[in-house]
Amino acid sequence: MSAHERVYRPWPGVLAGHRAYLLPEISGVGLTLHEGGTPLVAAPRLGSRLGIDLHLKVEGQNPTGSFKDRGMVAAVAGAMAGGARTVVCASTGNTAASAAAYSARAGLKCLVILPAGAVSAGKVAQALVYGARLVPVRCGFDRALELARELAARTPAVLVNSLNPLRLEGQKTAAFEVASALGGAPDFLVLPVGNGGNIRAYWLGFQQYRRAGLIDRCPRIIGVQALGADPLVRGEPIAEPRTRATAICIGRPAGWNGAMDAIRESGGTVLAVDDSQIFAARDLLAADEGVFAEPASAAAAAGLACLAERGAVPCGSTVVLVLTGHGLKDPDAVLERACLPPVVEPEFPAILAAAGDGGAVDDPGI
Ligand SMILES: *Cc1c(COP(=O)(O)O)cnc(C)c1O
For ligand 1, which residues put their CB under 6 angstroms from it? Predict the structure, then answer.
């Protein structure tokens, strides 16, 4: 091994990095943007507020900024192996960005059915720049998914929504990484739930590692939804779901049963938090730990805070909070609530006065 290799040996991506635990039909496909291998970041300040040993699985560090890349590399590899030329998805945004990137990489065409007006600007920009064909439709995510399924049924295009089992195959690798980083399973794993694919994927991953003898128990899995888009909590579909956390604004999760099985079998629970709790949790996470997550991810942080306050997550527990997407995906979710200070003249006294105003500079004693 040369000195250079020792300094720079990149994580090989989900398919090669987790080859031994993936289906052979995809594990040998040479497709990667070096997704996965994301850091598990200790969160001591937020953890001590909540009285727990907290770790953040920062999935925003994936190539397109969300965990969707883990599943998408697998689904697009499957489409390549099957000789497909086009993939199709419905998306609240991150699936679109990821499908567009991996199909560009694979040389496939990508068609995205977008619920009009319900997708953040950053995600639309990604899908556009990667060259996907976008079809904005006047409907919400649930109807968009029906249309994508119909398109896949009537044309040779391959559906790459999480109904495609290869998506979960790729996404389960995050559980492997959590277990490896901690040297075992955490007591609790907390994540946001929209369509219900990712929560099932984590459960599959932990179970597979336990069967392989790599861990001796699985975590309790806690799903968090946004109030107004919380069908699993209410126990019935919601016709017109509403939340500012657009990535989980889903009223009829396609993965309903799989999500509820993961929660029940792991001894976990599902709860809902409102948008103001979500924004408060996002700001706290950023200020305490220097990690900026998009609103859907912050929902999980807000849910964890509720459970810790109620004592449902006991003091001293080891907890992994899955931060599913990067905050820069949706900067409007910050800017529409924040108020930028007024512009001042480029003179020192003006700068000092303005800086002192917010207490940003200690009293200089002049
Ligand atoms: C897709 C997504 C979710 C929800 O995942 P599901 O598998 O649909 O439950 C949560 N957060 C972010 C950022 C997402 O992109």
Answer: 66, 68, 94, 162, 192-199, 247-248, 294, 296-297, 324-325
d(CA 8, CA 64) in angstroms, rounded, equals 22
From atom 4 of ligand 1, which residue's Cα is the shortest distance away?
A: 194
Which residue has the CA at smallest separation from atom 1 of ligand 1? 247
Which residue's alpha carbon is at the smallest distance from atom 14 of ligand 1? 247
Ramachandran bin of 196, using left for φ above 0, alpha for ψ from -120 to 50, beta for the remaining angles: left
Ligand 1 centre to CA of 90 (Å) is: 13
Per-residue pLDDT of the chain (366 residues; tens, 9 = 90+): 566 667 778 899 999 999 999 999 998 899 999 999 999 999 999 999 999 999 999 999 999 999 999 999 999 999 999 999 999 999 989 999 999 999 999 999 999 999 998 889 999 999 999 999 999 999 999 999 999 999 999 999 999 999 999 999 999 999 999 999 999 999 999 999 999 999 999 999 999 999 999 999 999 999 999 999 999 999 999 999 999 999 999 999 999 999 999 999 999 999 999 999 999 999 999 999 999 999 999 999 999 999 999 999 999 999 999 999 999 999 999 999 888 889 999 999 999 998 875 555 565 554
Q: Which DSSP state fits 248?
A: G
* 3-state SS assignment for residue 108: coil
Cβ distance 112 to 129 under 8 Å? no
